[in-house]
Amino acid sequence: MKVLPKTGVLSSFALTQIASYSVQAEDAGNENEGFLDSIRQGDQPIPIRKSFWELLSENWWVAALVVAGIMSCILAWWLRKRFAKKRMQDEKEKETDPYEEAMSHLQSLEGKHRSMEPKPFTFRLSEVLRVYVQRRFELPAMELTGEEFLREASQHQFIHSHYEDLLREFIARGDVVKYSREGIDDKGLHMLFESAQHFVKDTNQRLEEERLSDEEKLTKATST
What we know:
Layout: H1 6-42, H2 52-58, H3 60-95, H4 98-109, H5 118-137, H6 146-154, H7 157-162, H8 164-179, H9 186-223
Helix pairs in contact: 2-3, 4-5, 4-9, 5-8, 5-9, 6-8, 8-9
């Protein structure tokens, strides 16, 4: 009987072990493959479409930019409309002469002291006078108290020189009617109306006379 060398025995044993491990690995692979197949079969399919809210949550910054752009356009439109309206009002006021405007309002009030209540009549008369002062002399007159209005008007040299006492009396008598329970008769309201009318007419006449005098002086100075 022939004895194999030790190297041959070891090689045969190694081959046997390798073959055994290969079979076990193949069986394990088949088992794992089935396990993975069962997992894949149980997985949910990947959705093809996303809902609106999912898209919005993923792209919120785009929505924020769109909203900011819309709000900016609305704000720009509102500001443009407001400024255009104010410009039209300013242009309309410039086209209307302050004296003619005041006299038109005074003519509409004339004689109404008998039909109107004293307070609304006096408020309207005071408003006409204040608007005239504000436009003619470029002084703040609206939204002021009587004392504030008189203080602002007295700072104008022309009013201070000729009409400060008249305005002071008009404001004092008007405030009594507007803010106290003291009554006033038709004669008192008529005198208040005549005071305002005299102020408008007299200031306009005096200002025109001063303007003509200044033009004459300028003409003489340039001719000599």
